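Subgroup meeting minutes
Present: P.N., E.W., G.H.
Scribe: E.W.

1. P.N. recapped why we're keeping a running log of single-chain structure predictions: easier to compare across weeks, and new members can see raw inputs and outputs side by side.
2. G.H. added today's entry (168 aa).
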Amino acid sequence: MAMTSLPPFWTAIWFLLPVLPVCLWVAWSDLKFMKIPNKAVLTLAAIYLLTGPIALPLDLYLWGWALGAGVLVVGFVVSSLNLVGAGDSKFAAAMAPFFAGGDARVVLGLFAGCLLAAFATHRLFRAIPAFRSATATWESWTNKDFPMGLALTGTLAFYFFIALLFSA
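Output recorded in log:
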């Protein structure tokens, strides 16, 4: 991972602090209910709206909105084909602006790693009787679909955590 493809320290701080609670909310909601609340998607978009002009140069901030719009269009198509859930598509569109100026290879590589880790972790904890009984009402244990919000939120949060590690 090249350090130049990650956001600088202050950008990572400005985004990580308000984004992390939303990531936790979305991951929990997707695990428990297999749904990503629209309020969470709108909250994430509002965070970018308010902190983006502080954390990014104006040109990157505006490119972020364009990136989000492009992901929204692609997400609409793939969710219309029932390839992913609508909540996953909307959340991906809301998180896309945060990657403005980043290297797509880094972001997609991080997403691939988070997807594999989230899947393995989900299956591991599903197989642990004590954990399963403590979370017996979680729909993700018995649903045929995977809670993709877990991988999406991991990607967003780890992107900024890694940026902080490499800039320290």
